[in-house]
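In this supplementary section we document a worked example of the pipeline. Step one takes a protein sequence of length 490 as its only input; no multiple sequence alignment statistics are reported here. Step two produces a three-dimensional model, which step three serialises into structure tokens for compact storage. The input and output of this example are shown verbatim.
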Amino acid sequence: MPSTPDLTKKGAALAIGLAAAGWVVGRRLIGRGMPARSFSVRQGAARRRQLATMGGRAGGAFALHRARRTFAGAERRQALDTRFEMRTAAQITETLGHMKGAMMKLGQMASYLDSGMPPHVREALAQLQADAPPMSGELAAGVVESELGAHPDELFLQWDPVPIASASIGQVHRAITTDGRAVAVKVQYPGIDEAIESDLGSANLVFGGLGVLFPGLESGPIVEELRERILEELDYELEAANQQLFVDHYAGHPFIHVPDVVHELSSRRVLTTELAEGARFDEVLSWSQEEKDLAAETIFRFVFRSLYRFRAFNGDPHPGNYLFRPGGQVVFLDFGLVKRFTPEEVDTFSSLVRSMVLHRDVESFRRTIEEIGLLKPGEPFSDELVEEYFSHFYEWVLEDGEATMTPEYASESIRRIFDASGPYGDIMKAANVPPSFVIIQRINLGLAALMGELGATNNWRKIAEELWPFVDGPPATPMGEREHRWATHR
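The serialised model returned by step three reads:
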């Protein structure tokens, strides 16, 4: 974040962080004997504890497997991997079902934020972020055959049964189509959709602690919004449509690339896309600062152009969802969590920017956040405190000038969420998160965390003015010039 003296003194609210915290608090309070009715989970609590224990055993076994694998030779590693592969839907349900798949997804969502969280929350997130063990090649091929009507060896010119990546609800295989295209085939674990859908019916167990931490928070809309987003990720047909939206919008863009979707080889549980190449985020961190600045500018432009120009946001700004090439070229992956905003919602975001950034009109800003339910009318907070607290979200664009993003900002922001004894404790507990802000808040903190890791420097205000339709400013950088030419001649 901009390296100004008071930058790390501002707080914020993040729905995903709140959800993780609520889950932690809920678990711990129940463990201390608090009545289950406090979290609306009296029915079936014993069953869920039993299932959680079973899932814990499975997760512990995989952790031991990975530890053994570290000290094994290549042939032994392959043997260990084969022995540990999930070979049936029942194994998948036991290992990843019963909240494991859903909680791993939440852990993924919050994984880049954990450095600023209290130790007990970091400990919980570490459990949620564990990689899923792979399913066997035969089982993956069976899913493809049941979904697309033929074995992968018949559908593809070449099919690699060894996955190149695994995640919370599926894994990815390399393949070559019959017309010679290199593709990535994402295959969903069989049965994981039913397990997650079933357990999300008891989502209050996950989010029940929110009311304990934040008395002013209406947790119901947050629970429903996150439930919808997680369930949407189970539908690869929807993800294909989401990705196609971005493919079409960014067609021919000079430095933003979204892999093409191969619709004829995709279904509800199989998604086939162009196989993209590039460096991972960890490698980019070793690149020159000039290259890191260019990569950061591309991500910044992608986020805010998508939000303000066609009202959609790829809601998973996770380092693993990018591939990087020199010169600011970035490939954007994983469109399972996409939020499409209404014109009214984007108008609200625009109104807040105009009030806080362009006009510094705190009274207008306060009226707007009270109208949308972010803060209840009549709360005993001065306008000065409201400005100090909420201006955090706009720090990188408040001033016209170069600013350097730092990881300390994102960490301090997360600490402020949980530090009820700090200077913003009262307003933090009184603030609410409207449904439309559940995903938008991830822009603020997720983007700040990525930019901070990159140590990116730029005039973010001028770049933002290019992308805000209500300003529509001229190109501010060489990349802006290239993007302007692309947008003009589309």
